[in-house]
Queue: 2 jobs
Job 1
Amino acid sequence: MKILGFRRARVEDARRVFAILNEVASEIPLVLDTPERGQAIRAVVESCCQHGPSWITLDETGRIVGFLLGKMTTSDLVQMEFAGLELVYGGMTTGQRGHGAFANLLAQAKALGLPLRAVVKHGNKSRMGQRLERQQFVRTASLRPNEDTFVWTPPPTC
């Protein structure tokens, strides 16, 4: 199927976004093996879809086939030295990979002109760290030994 377009996620998209997240969970890796864990991640998905900014990718039938979930953060939070958009989770259905759609989702986030941050676990099987670096994200020090943090800073405006 061909990608039709992108749009901001809405709370009513959360069910489908969670289904795709469940499909790609082992690649992230994200453990959803208990009802409690599933419920906690579902709440994150719903919050990001409702309050965002978050985006979805649509195929030619209008079906959601990918997503990028974001949440605004400020340096006012305890132990938070980052202010901008935290990219929480992102993924594409298996059939939609390799066509540049995820890069387009990242472009939507970059268009906000805010610093972006993503945390990638070392066990990630989708080469997400490399994908982010190709999109001008810079690997920075991480708080945990089993993950890498990537930050994108918007170019200065004249």
Note: The chain has one domain: 3-152.
Job 2
Amino acid sequence: MTNTSIIRESTKEKLLQTGINLFSRYGFEATTTRMIAEDSGQNLATMPFHFKNKENFYKAVLKYAAQDVSEGYEPFYTKIQELNLSGSWTVEKAWTCICDLVDIQLYISIDLPHPEYLTLIYWEQYCHFDNYTPITDVILLKSEETLAFLLTKYQPGLEYDRALLLSRIINGGIVSFGEHPMFVKPLKEKLSDKQRGIWMKNKIREFVLKSIQEL
């Protein structure tokens, strides 16, 4: 890679990071190209040069964030694929996978270094560019379908449609704590941010797993 290519990649990275911050705070419509240029330290022609227009840039930002967050799921989905290929599913293995997925969702919702990703899920629902929702697809849709599948393996005889409904309730509930921290507002005066995060994760995990066991 030439020095020019490295500089271009570095500039694109800076623009994408700026896009994550601005779009998560203001959404697509309220974020202007001037805001993008000023916050990234670039001139007004830089973003159009790399992405042609704001819509393409917005989609690139969503794709960039989705790819970043999806890396946290890769080992888990590899494990699922291996179990499918081997046909060696048991109730115990399904339970282990359920616990792993719940832990991943708790990390994504509470410990994720980039909480802006959860905010971008909200904006994805209101900026309908060909129904382009890559972050929603990763954090919500794929994980919900996977959890529903695991529930049918954990409880043979459970209809997939019912499992999908249960999965939506469980997964949506977990992510909501990350999207709407005001849900735990009464705890703010009693616990530090770190303590609150640990307490939330432990309580949510305990409640979710116990609910599944009692299906």
Note: Residues 1-7 have pLDDT under 50 and may be disordered.
